[in-house]
Amino acid sequence: MKKELIIGTLITGLLGAAHPEPAKDLAEAAMKLSAAKNYTWTSARAFGGREPRSTTGKAGSGGHTQLTIPGRDSSIDVLIRNGKAAFKTDEGWQLASSEAEGDENRRFRYLAYMASNYEAPTQRVTELISGITDLKVAEGGTYSGVLTEDGAKKLMSFRRRGRGGDDREPPAIAGAGGSVKFVVTNGVLTKYELTLSGKITFNEQERDIGRKSTVEFSKIGGTSFDIAEEAAGLLASASDK
To answer: Is the pLDDT of residue 8 over 60?
Structure first.
């Protein structure tokens, strides 16, 4: 039911914000991606003029998502299911926990928060499409559009969590804008590029911010991966609590 709702929202957003024919074609391509039982993706994100940081992931039909995310000194292997995360360490797999204390356990808290707020990249496609205006299509299966200010602001927003899990007021964002480009291959959405810019007020100081994200999908419907028994057991135990 959830997937059907996502697809319905996607079509409604597209047809209401763009020209009918390109919108319909892009909606169908996005539907095919969303309907895939499994897929692989690579996500590269850059802030300002910094070098992009890349995450790779695999989504499986059993509800598990496998991620390899960049860390300070090396990458981190993570397995997510039902809002919980287990990650691989030198001592074996461990369960991420928002209750872990001390600076040495910041990774536990960060991964727990990431898992509880995890959003599949196919879901982000829906958000992007719903915020598009002036959709255009070029040869080679490339679609591009401009984001509304509200759409760009929503994509730039984030929540900060204080101690005890209380939500803090998010920083104010002004002058938000952006654009998005989609690539469709053989009738399926296989890539999108998102560019955002605006001003954010943090600690009473206004700063210019910019972000560029590129997500590429591959092995759509043909992805498989091995799940570590230790990690699956930790996630199963956490879900039972």
So the answer is: no
